Amino acid sequence: TWVVKGQEPAKALAEALCEPPYKLGRGVAAATREAASKSVLKCLGCFREADIKGVVDGLEHEQRCVLMKYLYAFWREGQPAKVNAQLFSWHAALVENGGDAVLSAAIFEWGWP
Fold first, then answer.
1. Residue 71: is its pLDDT beyond 90?
2. Which pLDDT score, from 0 to 100, does residue 111 have?
3. Helix 61-77 crosses helix 9-18 at what angle (to 10 degrees)?
4. What angle do CA 26, 106, 68 make, to 5 degrees?
5. What are the residues whose beta carbons fall under 8 Å from the beta carbon of 2, sequence distance 6 or more?
6. Cα end-to-end span (Å), the chain
């Protein structure tokens, strides 16, 4: 709700990353997964490129791992070029902050769609 009101997007992003639907089990409805994904993408779009590193630094390790998973899911969906460019900025900040651990968590954790 913070992102909809245009207030505190960093808190909105952190909240959106706290309980990703894939951690709730396979029985989660597709609509729930899609709504969660859209919320994260909307949050990411609220930040200027200059702010991304600071936002990533403020996330917990688990939130950074979840965000990396979302980035790969967004690329799989075929986002517009402008969105993809911003996603690469997030990816770079995540790798700079968390290194191989964030990449490994995104690639090797079971249960991610």
1. yes
2. 55
3. 90
4. 105
5. 8, 9, 11, 12, 15
6. 25
Number of residues in the chain: 113
Question: Distance between CA atoms of 101 and 11, rounded to whole angstroms?
Answer: 23
- Non-local CB neighbours of 36 within 8 Å, separated by 6+ positions: 16, 20, 21
Return the structure tokens found at 36. 């969660």
| Local structure of 113: helix, strand or coil | coil
Question: How is residue 3 written in tokens?
Answer: 């992102």
CA-wise closest residue to 61 among 99, 89, 11: 99
Candidates 28, 98, 108; CA nearest to 63 is 98
| Helix, strand counts (H, E) of the chain | 6, 0
Burial of residue 51 (number of CB atoms within 10 Å: 0-12, 13-18, 19+): middle
Which is more confidently placed, 104 or 83? 83
pTM: 0.85
